[in-house]
Fold:
Amino acid sequence: MTNAFQDPLPPASVAPVLHLGSAWSSGWSVPGWMICQLGGITPEDRIIFLSRPDSPPKLRAVSPSGRVPVLEIDGLRLWDTLAIAEYLWERNPGCAIWPADPARRAIARCMAAEMHSHFDEVRNGLPMNLIKRWPVRDGLPSNVKLMARPGVRAGTDRIEAIWRDALARFGGPWLCGADFCAVDAMHAPMTTRYTTYGVDLAPDSMAFIAQMAAHPLMQAWRARAEAQADAIGRDVVMASP
Ligand SMILES: N[C@@H](CCC(=O)N[C@@H](CS)C(=O)NCC(=O)O)C(=O)O
Structure:
């Protein structure tokens, strides 16, 4: 029996091509796209809408893991956000992906790795949807119940602690100091979940969430989500997930 994951993928492009998911719901697509901007490349973006019957074969046609983001660059196919960040940094050391100072960069990598490795309970408990505002429909659980889902409060407490510690350590306004870097990009989709579900966190966390929403990269991404929602139909987007 043929396993689709073993099918060879086409040779990767030399000119950068970035495969992304739906802008309103694909959490990892957000930092994938932002990190390319921070790395100084302007890839051709190709969108695969997720959660559709034809999504899995479309994803497997470009991604060995069946997940996005995937960056094709220099003839390589990179299918992981953190690996994309590291490749673009090695290709252009000193770009805006990581802080210039080695100690700050090491802490940045700890924060990025923790966000990359953990918090699935928060991701699954509060699914990302940049268009929806809670409550939107009767009969669904309140944000209080969503926050009571297993692991959501504990994960949120840790995320707030990361923000608080990093802002105190490096003086803000971003997690590694004055400049927005890959760590902020990786936390960006997390911040949006609390806005979507109307969850009130501590005042300093709410300030960070508001600051993130106003960042030009986040605003550009949100505009993309709004445009996709208009094109696809807001009823479809509001029903997701
Ligand atoms: N470890 C991967 C995670 C990527 C991931 O989970 N992507 C999701 C979208 S946010 C995906 O492609 N899911 C496939 C699907 O929804 O069918 C990374 O860092 O890029």
